[in-house]
Structure formats: C-alpha cells, structure tokens
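Example S7 (structure tokens).
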C-alpha cells in the first residue's frame, strides 16, 4: 500500500500545481483586462459596458483581484445616472465579493440611506461597518465618515436621538467636514433643536462666503418657524456674519501691506482684490515724468486666488509699481450664488471665461484711476488661466455688449505669462499685437502642456518671438517665482524696462 501511495500523491501535487498555475494565469489576464479598461479614455457609458463584460468574464473573487473595484465603479456610474436600484445591486455584488470591507459596507449603506431605500438593511449594514472600523482601529476621520452614514440612516429611519448622538460624535471625529455638519444640522432641526440647527447652518453658510442659496433659504425658514422676533434675530446674525467676512478680508489685506478693493465688472459681478501702493517715488528716477508711474495687474491660475500672487505683488510695489492682485469670479472673495467656487467656474467654462475677461478689464480700469498712474504703462503678470486672460486683454475689439457700454479700459503694454494655460495657437495672434520685446514667458522644466506652449511661442526664427525662460525643477505658476528670489528680480527688471517711461513701452499695436 505504501508503495502505491507515491504515484497518487505525486498526481495530487501535480493537480494542485496546475490549479495554482491556472489561477495565477487568470489573475494576470484579469489584471491586464482591467488595466486596459482604465487606460482607454472612453465615455462613461462605454466604460460601464466594458466593466460589465469584465465582470462577466472574470466573475470569481479568487481569480479576479479587481472584481470589487469594478463592481463599485459600476455602482457609482449608475448612482450618478439616477438609477439607484441598479447601483444598489452592483454594491451588493461588491459586498458578496468582499463582505468584510468597512468602506464597501459604508458605501452600500449610505446609498440606501441617501435614497430612502430599505432603511432597516441600511442600518444593519452600517452597524457592521462601524463595528469593523472600530475593531480595526481605523483613523478617526475615516471612522467619522462611517459613523456619519449610520447617523444619517438613523435620521432617515426616524431614530432621531440615536441620529443626533452619532452625528455629534462624527463631527468630533472628522471636524470641519461640511456634509457631516449639514447632516447634524438636519438632525437638530428634525428633533426640534432649532437654535443648534441655526448655529450649524449659519457656520456652513458663512464658510461658503454666503453663496449657498439653499442654506440661506433654510436659515430664513427656521427664522420664520420661530416667529417674527426670531426671524429678525436670524437675519441680524446672517448680516453680522457676512460683515465679519468683509472685515476679515480687510484685515488680511492690510496685514500684507495692501488695501482691500471692491470692484464691479461691466456685467455687474462683484469682485475683490488687493491693491499694493508703491513708495512715494517713481519707478526709475530721472526717466519717468514727474508724478507719473506704472502699474501691474496680477492674475492667478484656475482654482487659486489672489493670495497666490500676493508676494509678487508686494515685491513689485516695493520697486515702485502700483500692483493689484485680483480674485477672478468664482475664486477667493469674488464669489456669488451663481459662481460659488472654481468648480462652478469650470462647469460653465465658456461663459465663465467671457465673464473673467470683463473682470480683467474692470481691474485695469481700477489701476488706471489710481493717483499718478499712467494708463499707457500698465502691465499684466498672469499664471495659468491668468496668463490666458492677460493675453486676451490685448484685443481691441469690443468683446460684449456690457463692455461696449462700459468705461474704456487701458490695454496692457507688457505681459509676463507664467505656465500659460492652453495651446500656443490661442496666444500667437494676440501677442503679435504688442511691440517687440513686450512679452516674457516662463514655465517649469517639469511641466508638460505649459512648457510646450512656451517653446512653441518662443520658437527660434519666429518674427518678434517673445522672450522665454525655462525654470529647472518642479513647480508651476507663481511658485516658479516665489521659490526663486532671483526670478522676482528678472520679472521686475523686465517690467521696469518695458513700463518705466512712455518711450520704453510702445503699447498695443493696432490691427
């Protein structure tokens, strides 16, 4: 018997080895298929079809390490499309593949709670997610998000005391998270804690600089629920909070050596900027006419604010320029209910760009009105999107009905474009309208698209090609200059040369 066991054991070992080899081969095939799906730039609907085929081809978690991720992606796709039932089925499929993942359980449970679906199951799933998160001692913030989901499920099911207690804990674990704070405020309102609800809603409203119409409406509704006197109290608190934001902006500007300015563009959008006055001396003694000086407008990149260029504005002011750093609409302090943040700016990009051009003209008019500023000697330093808008300011055609009826704006006599946004074709004609040597281009050596744009615009052999400088190392936009004090001097010398006197700046050429 013992002799006969040898071949059987060997055969068994061979079968196990073959099975393992087959399993690894399937895993490699699944990995390759999934990576190919992610690598292709497909529309969302086409990617969803590819993911469904992927799940059908590799349905076993043991041989498909990407099964749960694919199912989660499909769930997210259908949830965004408003197909809550289909999304739930894909989340359930992911949970079957990995039932002990607290984040997956959180995603499914919150999906049910948010859509008011099967709330008992939502609570059960989320209680298990909380148990696993606590057992594994996940980071406090991560636990806060999971407990927020459970608290919201309790709120939706009507278990209000449990909801409030858990949402208060979530706020402590993940402080400052807007969605958790809003869930807590909603729970306070539902349980009748009006004062607490108003305080949290007001904090959220002011954190968004008063741009959330929904929160404003909720605050006024809570005020009316409390009677006329309470409504007036809520209104006063809103007004005081908005006034405090303005005061804070003013103090911040003064701390940086500037003056807070409030502008209105030709289409009525309210803007904020920081105006840095120069010392009481001309840019270059003996060259500038007595009492007249040059000015520079600084424009930040998309998603940033005037704070990103404040150091450069202060440095230029110290060298004798008037300098204005502007928050473009949808950024920093220049926000509204229609454009509360850069995401909203990007969501309606074409319209936002047209409006931002009006912002730049309003800023140029502001600079031209400053004491002793020569309107023919204004330059613009722009980074990223700001570089594109700086170039657009050179155009002479009336861009809109608003601008045609507005006060004339001065056109820049010199431009410094840092990490320019967009392709070179969008700049070529505009830059050609400036006098020779009136444009300085900069990009970081590790940037891709901006560096390509700079190289194309400054190509050797091009007529009146702009000056260019490639900054070695990482960095982009105003960071290129901030981390290199010598580049501040380069930028300043260029602007002094181009703007120091009327003879030194030819201005925009007419076409």
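Recovered sequence:
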């Amino acid at each position: 018997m013992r002799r006969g066991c040898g071949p059987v054991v060997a055969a068994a070992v061979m079968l196990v080895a073959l099975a393992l080899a087959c399993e690894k081969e399937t895993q490699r095939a699944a990995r390759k298929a999934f990576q190919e799906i992610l690598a292709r730039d497909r529309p969302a609907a086409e990617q969803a079809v590819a993911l469904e085929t992927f799940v059908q081809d590799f349905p076993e978690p043991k041989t498909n390490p990407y099964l749960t991720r694919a199912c989660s992606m499909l769930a997210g796709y259908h949830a965004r499309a408003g197909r809550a039932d289909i999304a739930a089925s894909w989340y359930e499929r992911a949970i079957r593949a990995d039932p002990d993942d607290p984040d997956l359980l959180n995603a499914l449970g919150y999906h049910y709670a948010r859509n008011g679906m099967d709330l008992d199951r939502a609570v059960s799933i989320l209680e298990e997610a909380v148990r696993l998160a606590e057992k594994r001692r996940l980071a406090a913030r991560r636990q806060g998000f999971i407990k927020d989901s459970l608290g919201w499920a309790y709120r939706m099911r009507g278990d209000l005391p449990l909801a409030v207690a858990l949402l208060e804990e979530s706020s402590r674990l993940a402080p400052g998270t807007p969605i958790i704070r809003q869930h807590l405020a909603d729970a306070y309102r539902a349980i009748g804690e009006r004062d607490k609800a108003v305080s949290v809603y007001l904090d959220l409203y002011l954190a968004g600089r008063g741009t959330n119409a929904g929160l404003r409406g909720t605050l006024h509704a809570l005020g009316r629920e409390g009677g006329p006197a309470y409504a007036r109290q809520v209104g006063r608190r809103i007004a005081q909070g908005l006034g405090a934001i303005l005061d804070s902006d003013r103090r911040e500007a003064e701390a940086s050596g500037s003056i807070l300015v409030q502008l209105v563009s030709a289409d009525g959008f309210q803007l904020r900027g920081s105006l840095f006055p120069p010392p009481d001396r001309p840019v270059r003694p003996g060259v500038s006419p007595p009492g007249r000086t040059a000015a520079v407008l600084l424009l930040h990149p998309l998603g940033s604010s005037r704070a990103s260029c404040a150091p450069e504005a202060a440095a230029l002011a110290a060298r004798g320029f008037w300098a204005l750093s502007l928050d473009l609409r949808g950024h920093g302090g220049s926000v509204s209910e229609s454009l509360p943040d850069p995401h909203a700016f990007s969501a309606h990009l074409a319209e936002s760009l047209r409006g931002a051009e009006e912002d730049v003209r309003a800023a140029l008019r502001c600079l031209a009105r400053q004491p002793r500023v020569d309107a023919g000697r204004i330059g613009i330093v722009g980074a990223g999107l700001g570089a594109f808008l700086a170039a657009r300011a050179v155009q002479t055609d009336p861009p809109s009905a608003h601008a045609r009826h507005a006060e004339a704006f001065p056109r820049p006599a010199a431009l410094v474009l840092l990490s320019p946004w967009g392709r070179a074709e969008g700049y070529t004609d505009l830059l050609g309208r400036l006098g020779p040597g009136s444009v300085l281009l900069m990009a970081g050596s590790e940037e891709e698209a901006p560096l390509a744009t700079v190289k194309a615009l400054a190509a050797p052999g091009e007529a009146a090609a702009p000056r260019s400088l490639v900054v070695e190392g990482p960095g982009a936009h105003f960071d290129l200059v901030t981390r290199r004090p010598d580049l501040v001097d380069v930028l300043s010398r260029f602007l002094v040369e181009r703007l120091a006197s009327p003879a030194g700046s030819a201005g925009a050429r007419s076409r």
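Notes on this example. The two ends are 103 Å apart (CA to CA).
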